[in-house]
Design brief:
Number of domains: 2
Largest sheet: 4 strands, mixed
Number of helices: 6
Radius of gyration: 25 Å
Strand content: 15-25%
Number of strands: 7
Strand order of the largest sheet: 6-5-4-7
Helix content: 55-70%
Length: about 200
């Protein structure tokens, strides 16, 4: 692993994280939108309007005193606006999430680049991958049965412990596509779902 390789891995890592984010988004969207989202929007608007009404009523009952009713009324108006425009907020939230994913991938790979260069030695046994980095005094055993999803990306495998997780458990680098594919096959045989990013 060299600093250049680590920084080059930022793009495939970001793509893998975004793929998982999209899978999670679609899974939640299919469950949530079909049953609850239209009702949630309507209920949110109605509750906010009731809140505005109650705040104004409280304010009229206490005309000379110092009260927080105007502040509450303004807050409920803001909530009503948010719920009214809930469907149009999706694009903005997704842009923000993509920026956060990009930032996380850069930060992760910059930490790797600072420690590079070093050599990673892998050994594969039944359902166990051992990674050793002599320079860093690093040795880890990875039980392949704990991986639920593995994303193939160029010379990397990004492993996740939960099907829709957006936090990678491991980023595995292989200088040879043959080595990468052998490990990927072993991960699949151990029960993980396999995904692939376009080259």
């Amino acid at each position: 692993m060299t600093p250049e390789l680590a920084r080059a891995a930022t793009v495939p890592l970001e793509q893998a994280l975004w793929l998982q984010n999209e899978r999670l988004y679609e899974q939640l969207r299919s469950r949530f939108r079909s049953r609850f989202r239209p009702r949630l929007r309507l209920a949110g608007i109605l509750l906010a309007l009731v809140g505005v009404g109650l705040s104004l009523l409280g304010w009229t009952q206490d005309p000379g005193g110092e009260s927080s009713f105007p502040v509450f009324a303004a807050a409920f108006v803001a909530f009503a606006i948010v719920f009214a425009f809930l469907p149009t907020n999706d694009a903005g939230l997704r842009r923000f999430t993509r920026r956060m994913v990009t930032h996380r991938a850069r930060r992760m790979m910059e930490r790797v680049a600072v420690k590079a260069p070093y050599v990673i030695e892998y050994s594969l046994a039944i359902n166990v991958l051992t990674a050793r980095v002599e320079k860093l005094g690093f040795s880890r055993l990875l039980d392949l049965r704990t991986i639920r999803v593995a994303v193939k990306a160029r010379n990397f495998i990004v492993a996740f412990t939960r099907p829709y997780s957006t936090r990678p458990m491991r980023l595995l680098y292989f200088p040879s596509p043959t080595e990468r594919d052998q490990v990927l096959q072993a991960i699949g045989s151990a029960g993980a779902g396999l995904l692939e990013l376009p080259d």
